[in-house]
Amino acid sequence: MRRYGPGAPGPAIVGALFALCVLLLPAPSVARAETPLDLDATGHITDTVGALGRRRPQVEAALARLAGRDVQLYVTYVHDFSGRTGREWADATADRNGLGPHDVLLAVATSPRRFAVSAAQDSGFRADQLRQVATVAIAPALKAHDWAGAAIGAADGYRSVLAGQAVRPPVIVPGSSDPGGSGLLPGDRRFWAPVATGALLCLAGLLLRRQRRRRARRRVTVVPFRTPVAPVTVSASTEPGLARMAQPLTPLPDLETEASLNLVATDDAVRTSAEELSFAVAQLGEAATLPFAEAVGYARSELAAAFRLRQRLDDAPAHDDDFRRHALDEICSRCTSANRRLDAEAAAFDRLRALKANAAVVLARAEDAARALEPRIDTAENALFALRRRCTEDALAPVWRYPAEARDRLAFAGAALEDAHTGLAEGDRDRAAVSVRAAEAALSQVRTLAAAALRHAHELNGSARRLAAALADAEAAAAGRTEGAAFDLLTAVRREAACERTDPRAVLRRIDEAAAAFDDLLPPDDPGRAARSHARTGRALLAARARVSGARDFITTHRGAVGARARTRLAEAERHLALARRDATEATRAETLALQARTAAERDVGVYGVAHSAPDTTRPARALGGALLGGIVLAGLLPATFGGGATRGRLAAPER
After folding, report:
1. Of 141, 166, 183, which closes a domain?
2. What is the mean pLDDT of the chain?
3. Which of 320-329, 417-426, 644-653 has the lowest mean pLDDT?
4. Residue 124: which domain range?
5. What are the tens digits of pLDDT across the range 529-564?
6. Cα torsion for 392, 398, 404, 410, to the nearest 10°?
7. Structural Rg of the chain based on CA atoms
8. Does residue 328 share a domain with residue 295?
9. 324 and 370 both lie in a single domain
10. Beta strands at 103-109 and 72-78: parallel, antiparallel or unpaired
11. What is the C-alpha separation between 201 and 203, in angstroms, rounded?
12. Chain centroid to CA 376: how far?
């Protein structure tokens, strides 16, 4: 990871002379004011008051642990913030030193025991997460003058946040109430004060000369870390002690686009990670893969929250710009958090699976799976063909192409397995691992497509069987009524149900709509009303589950083309379906959202265009087109793997 940090130190002799003078000269009796300063270029700690003392190694160890999560925490201790607020001082120091999006600055003023945290708006930390670490892990330590404990608490707290764990307070070790606060010169150094004074005068001359040269150079030299920017606005939601680095506000349309891209990329990362995790569980067992299951669970929860925010924005587009900006920022932040958690586990996941070392074993398992899937495709296809005499084209359309798509994915898997054999024969384990992983992903989609087609056939048969009972319930609810909108609807669905070819699911839904309309006209204590309502609720729940599963399968196997809108509707449909277990009325909402998700996804795929849409397209071209459409391979034709945005394409990297 690239580290953004302070500039290079000056010549050693000048630094040494200056250090000598600082050590020997007496401190002024007035309170010292620390302007935003240059951070120590040799590490992540800048301690101008000697606050850490012998505990500095403990702080360095905590910062190193956090760095393993791809976050650099810089800590600075000064006497005070020179009349500025902590937020202003921390932001100015971070800006002066060119800290980047993955850098966080903890600034501590020891005299007033105040602190501030400066983090970029796109750091991946939400304001509530920063606030939690500040309240639980930093403030209690500073209250007890535990200067080292504040830094350790911050580093460990941010690490816990990234891991999706609770933030814990640090172990308090009280220190000096005002480190470096005495203005007295130790007696054994007073002899050297005149010498130091003379040295300081010489140093001043040297520094003045050097400063003039620097100014001349700056007139023609580009600053390496930052370029001038337009006027900026700092988030008003940030509380004192939780500063945000000042950055230009992204235009709202650009932020909308960024949030949508983040949702799509994160959803792909979570789906791919969950998919490869299932292979690891089959290979190594649940106990060995528990940490990675927890990582996927955390990423899913963050992604679900992001989708919920996106749905809220879609439901109420009239929200003011500030609300939309805050919601979009949080969507991006939660996506970043999900990706970082997956990225943090990627290396350990690779060590556990050891795909390159175990390529031959995984290859054999994949070949067995491929042989078993061909009959499943045939079974699903035969089930759909058997329904053509009884079901309309609209009833079969959602899955009609699934068997053909499954065969294309299977052809891609076969080519990948053959290439893996070639790689092993030539001793090229990198090539074998890449091909085996691509085959695994393709076979997973073959399994999904075949199962979805067969399940759809079973659902149509089940709906056809339930038509008679539903129609009888509707007739009973009608209670002899021969007019009204409900009667007209019932008459229409009677004719539709009597047709040679029908869409059983659609007919069943309309029958239940008519029956519900009739029941609404009956008194609440009608003896048959409760039983009919209960039966309709059961059928509605089955229909919702089928719709949600169908939308999920389509988006999973076509995710290379599906955008944020369809994925958002699917996530919301899944949420309402979970609520339907306790509140049956949620089933209707879940089914509606699932239909919207499927419609939006099909529109995206239509815009994307597919290789196999042309009848004269060759099988290899269709296979590759299907792999791209399914998100099996990334843009570089390399397979996606367990991990977030920074690591899911890592099989492209050569071994070191």
Report:
1. 183
2. 80
3. 644-653
4. 27-183
5. 888 888 888 888 999 999 999 999 999 999 999 999
6. -150
7. 32
8. yes
9. no
10. parallel
11. 5
12. 34
**Locate tokens 């080292």: which residue?**
148
How far does CA 181 lie from the centroid of its chain?
46
Among 182, 143, 202, 269, smallest CA distance to 16 is for 202
Contact 555, 597 (CB under 8 A): yes
Residue 514's pLDDT band (boundaries 50, 70, 90)?
confident
Convert the pLDDT of each residue in 312-370 to its tens digit.
999 887 778 888 988 999 999 999 999 999 999 999 999 999 998 999 999 999 999 99
| Burial call 524-553: b when 16+ CB within 10 Å, e when fewer | eeeeebeebbebbbebbbbbbbbbbbbbbb
CATH code of 150's domain: 3.10.310.50
Domains held by the chain: number: 3
- Whether the model clears a pTM of 0.90, i.e. scores above it, the answer is no
- CA angle 528–529–531, rounded 5-degree value: 70
Residue 605 · residue 566 · CB < 8 Å:
no
The pair phi, psi for residue 285, each rounded to 5°, is 95, 160
Tokens matching residue 568: 């958002």
Strand partners, 47: 77
In Å, what is the CA distance from 261 to each residue of 258, 335, 518, 586, 633? 5, 10, 47, 29, 18
CB 259 within 8 A of CB 331: yes
DSSP 105-151: EEEEETTTTEEEEEE-TTSS--HHHHHHHIIIIIHHHHHTT-HHHHH
CA dihedral 298, 301, 304, 308 (to 10 degrees): -130
- In 3D space, the residue among 322, 327, 314 whose CA is nearest the CA of residue 258 turns out to be 327
The residue out of 183, 217, 233 marking a domain boundary is 183
Residue 71: C-alpha distances to residues 38, 39, 104, 345, 649 (Å): 20, 17, 7, 15, 21
